[in-house]
Design goal:
The complex is a heterodimer.
Chain A: E1 2-6, E2 12-16, H1 25-36, H2 39-50, H3 57-81, H4 87-95, H5 98-130, H6 137-154, H7 161-184, H8 200-214, H9 232-258, H10 264-267, H11 272-317, H12 336-356, H13 360-387, H14 402-420, H15 431-463
Antiparallel strand pairs in A: 1-2
Helix pairs in contact in A: 1-7, 1-9, 1-11, 2-3, 2-8, 2-9, 2-11, 3-8, 3-9, 3-13, 3-14, 4-5, 4-13, 5-6, 5-11, 5-12, 5-13, 5-15, 6-11, 6-12, 7-9, 7-11, 8-13, 8-14, 9-11, 11-12, 13-14, 13-15, 14-15
Chain B: H1 4-20, H2 22-27, E1 33-39, E2 45-51, E3 54-60, E4 68-72, H3 74-82, H4 87-92, E5 97-99, H5 102-115
Parallel strand pairs in B: 1-4
Antiparallel strand pairs in B: 1-2, 2-3, 4-5
Helix pairs in contact in B: 1-3
Classes of the chains: A mainly alpha, B alpha+beta.
Chain lengths: ~475, ~120
C-alpha cells in the first residue's frame, strides 16, 4: 500500500496510496461543476449577453471557458505540487509571501461570502416570483434560506458523494433541456450567432463578466486529500469546464433568442432563468427552473459554507483571526462560530443587495476578484518553478512559461476591464474598482496591523506553557 | 529524529489523554477510523484504531486499509502526540500532510485543540 521514493535530498519518501474510501472521478467532476454553478452565474450569463448583439453570447462563454482552461492548467500544476486543502494559502505563501497569501485568502473568503449572499438573494426572489408573493417576502425567504443553510451546517449535514453527483448532473440536465426547448420555439434558428466579432470592445467586456461565470471550479482542489490519484483533479476540472461551457452557452443563447436581453426588464431581473423557463414551458417551466435554482442553492450553501468555514477555522488556528472562530461544536464537530459569522456576513450583504437591487455589483466585483486570483495563480506557477525546480510535480504545464505568462497578462487585463464596467447596474463607472480596492485596503491593513498582534499574543501564551514531551 | 520507541511512548500518552477527556469522547462518539501515521524521515509507520471516539489500539507498522493517512517527520509526530505542537499550523505550512476527508482533517486537529487548548 505504500511505495518508496527518493526525495530531492536522497532520503526516503513514503507515499501512502490506499484509503478505505476514495472519491470517484464523477464526484470530482460534479464538485468542480457544482461549485461553479451558482444561481448568480446564470445572471452573469444574461449580463454578458447584454453587451453582444444577436445570439452571439456563446462566443464570450467559449472564450471565457478557454481562458478558464488556462487558469485550470495553473491550478493543476500548483495542486500537483501541494495536493492539500491548504493549497491556496500554501503556494501563495511559498511563491510570494505570508502576508500576501493572507490578503488573498481573505479576499477568497469574501468572494465565497458574496456568492452565498447573491444566491440567497436570487433564490428568495425566485420563490417570490414563482409563488406570486409581494416583493418584501423575498427578504423573509432570503433570511430563512440562510438560516436553514446555517442550521444544516451546524448540524454537520453535508451533501456528499452520490447525492452531490445527482444534484449537479440534474441541474446541468435541467438547464440544457429547458434551453433546448426554448430554442425549439424558433426552430433552433439563431440570430447573428457570430455578431460578437464585429464589436471587439463589447466582446472583451462580455469576456470579463464571463470570467465570473466559470469561477469557483478550482475550489475542487481541496479534494486532493480524498482521492487516490492526484491527476483526477486536473482531469476533473477540464471536464467540468466543458460541461459548464455547454450548459452556460445553451442557456445564454436560448435567453438571447427568446427573451430580449437588451431590455431592462430582463437584464435587471434577478430571476432571468425563470423568465426563460416561462418562455420554454410556461408555468411548468417556471417551476422547473425554480427547482434548478434550488439545486444551485444546495451546492452553493453546502460547498460554499463548508469551504469558507474551514478557511476561517484554519485561519483562527494559525492565529490570523481571533481564536473564537476556531471553536468546535462538541455535538457535531463543526466550527460553529465560523459558520455563524459567515451566515451573518452573508445576510448583511444579501439584505444590502435586496434594498438596493444592485446584484450586478456582486457579479462585477466577483469577476474582478476571481480574475486577480487567477492572475496570481500564474505568478505562483512561475515563482515556484524558479524556487523549487526539482520538486516533484505529477502535473506540469507544457510549453514552458507560455501558459502562466498568458494567464497573468490576460486575467490582469480582464480584472481591469471588469473593475471599470458597470453593465446594467446604473452605478458610477469604476464602482467595482473602488469596492475591490477597498477590500484589499481593509484586508491589507488587517494583515499588517492586527495579525502581528494576534500572533504575538499567541506566541506569548505558548511561551509560558511547559512542554509535556520528556527531554 | 525521534525513534520508533519515542513515538510509541507519545502515542501511549496520547491514548490516555484522548480516552479520558469527556468532552472529546462526546464529540467523537460517532467517529470510528483506522489511522496510519507515516514518519517520512525515518520510514517508521504506525497504526491507530479508533472506535466510537475511543482509541482502542495502536501499534508499529501499517495494518488494514486506513481511513486517514498522516505523513510528517518523526519529531512532529512526537510533539503532536505529546500536545506540544499545533497541528493546524504545521498542516498549513505543508509540514503535515493528510489524506482524509475534510471533516476528518478538522476532527483530527480538534483533538489537539480540545485536550491542549493552549498548544
Amino acid at each position: 500500500m505504500t511505495e518508496l521514493k527518493k526525495d530531492n535530498q536522497g532520503g526516503p519518501v513514503i507515499t501512502p496510496t490506499g484509503l478505505r474510501r476514495v472519491l470517484k472521478f464523477r464526484t470530482v467532476v460534479s464538485t468542480s461543476t457544482g461549485l461553479s454553478y451558482a444561481a448568480v452565474s446564470l445572471l452573469g450569463c444574461i449580463q454578458l449577453s447584454y453587451y453582444l448583439k444577436g445570439d452571439s453570447g456563446w462566443l464570450a462563454i467559449l472564450i471565457s471557458g478557454l481562458l478558464a482552461f488556462l487558469a485550470a492548467l495553473c491550478f493543476s500544476e500548483l495542486n500537483a505540487l501541494y495536493p492539500t486543502a491548504a493549497a491556496i494559502r500554501l503556494y501563495m505563501k511559498e511563491a510570494i509571501s505570508d502576508k500576501f497569501s493572507l490578503i488573498m485568502t481573505f479576499s477568497y473568503i469574501l468572494t465565497i461570502v458574496a456568492i452565498i449572499a447573491a444566491d440567497s438573494y436570487i433564490i428568495g426572489k425566485a420563490i417570490t416570483y414563482t409563488l406570486n408573493l409581494p416583493d418584501w417576502a423575498s427578504l423573509v425567504w432570503i433570511l430563512a434560506l440562510l438560516g436553514l443553510a446555517m442550521g444544516a451546517n451546524l448540524k454537520g449535514i453535508k451533501i456528499a458523494g452520490l447525492l452531490q453527483d445527482i444534484t449537479t448532473y440534474s441541474l446541468l440536465s435541467i438547464a440544457i433541456v429547458i434551453s433546448l426547448i426554448a430554442l425549439s420555439h424558433n426552430n433552433f434558428q439563431l440570430h447573428s450567432p457570430f455578431a460578437a466579432f464585429s464589436d471587439p470592445g463589447n466582446l472583451f467586456n462580455a469576456i470579463a463578466v464571463g470570467v465570473f461565470v466559470f469561477s469557483a471550479f478550482e475550489w475542487v482542489t481541496p479534494l486532493s486529500e480524498e482521492i487516490s490519484n492526484i491527476k483526477l483533479i486536473p482531469r476533473g476540472m477540464f471536464v467540468s469546464l466543458v460541461l459548464l461551457f455547454v450548459s452556460y452557452s445553451l442557456f445564454t443563447v436560448a435567453s438571447s433568442n427568446v427573451l430580449n436581453v437588451h431590455d431592462a426588464g430582463v437584464t435587471n431581473s434577478p430571476v432571468p432563468q425563470l423568465l426563460l423557463g416561462n418562455a420554454a414551458l410556461g408555468q411548468i417551466g417556471i417551476w422547473i427552473m425554480l427547482l434548478a435554482t434550488l439545486l444551485t442553492a444546495v451546492m452553493t450553501f453546502n460547498g460554499g459554507f463548508a469551504t469558507a468555514s474551514r478557511f476561517l477555522y484554519a485561519a483562527a488556528r494559525e492565529d490570523t483571526i481571533p481564536q473564537i472562530f476556531s471553536r468546535i461544536s462538541i455535538s457535531h464537530a463543526v466550527p460553529y462560530m465560523s459558520v455563524v459569522a459567515l451566515t451573518i456576513f452573508s445576510a448583511v450583504i444579501a439584505v444590502i443587495v435586496f434594498i438596493t437591487g444592485k446584484f450586478q455589483i456582486l457579479i462585477l466585483v466577483g469577476a474582478v476578484l476571481e480574475a486577480i486570483i487567477y492572475a496570481v495563480a500564474g505568478v505562483c506557477v512561475i515563482q515556484l518553478r524558479r524556487r523549487k525546480p526539482a520538486a516533484e510535480r505529477s502535473f506540469r504545464i507544457w510549453g514552458g512559461w507560455a501558459v502562466p505568462v498568458a494567464t497573468i497578462v490576460i486575467f490582469s487585463v480582464l480584472a481591469i476591464l471588469a473593475s471599470i464596467i458597470t453593465g446594467t447596474s446604473g452605478l458610477m463607472t469604476g464602482t467595482p474598482l473602488a469596492i475591490t480596492l477597498l477590500i484589499f485596503l481593509i484586508s491589507g491593513l488587517y494583515v499588517h496591523l492586527i495579525v502581528p498582534r494576534l500572533r504575538a499574543a499567541a506566541a506569548a501564551r505558548r511561551a509560558v506553557r511547559t512542554k509535556r514531551r520528556p527531554q | 529524529m525521534a525513534t520508533s520507541q519515542e513515538i510509541l511512548e507519545a502515542l501511549a500518552d496520547y491514548q490516555v489523554q484522548c480516552n479520558e477527556n469527556k468532552r472529546l469522547r462526546k464529540m467523537q462518539r460517532d467517529w470510528s477510523k483506522l489511522l496510519h501515521f507515516v514518519a517520512e524521515d525515518t520510514g517508521d509507520k504506525f497504526t491507530m484504531n479508533v472506535v466510537k471516539g475511543e482509541i482502542i489500539s495502536f501499534e508499529s507498522g501499517t495494518n488494514g486499509t486506513p481511513d486517514i493517512i498522516v505523513t510528517t517527520t518523526s519529531e512532529n509526530f512526537c510533539d503532536m502526540f505529546w500536545g506540544d505542537l499545533n497541528p493546524s499550523q504545521k498542516y498549513l505550512q505543508g509540514e503535515i500532510r493528510v489524506k482524509a476527508s475534510q471533516e476528518d482533517v478538522v476532527r483530527l486537529d480538534a483533538i489537539t485543540m480540545i485536550i491542549w487548548p493552549d498548544a
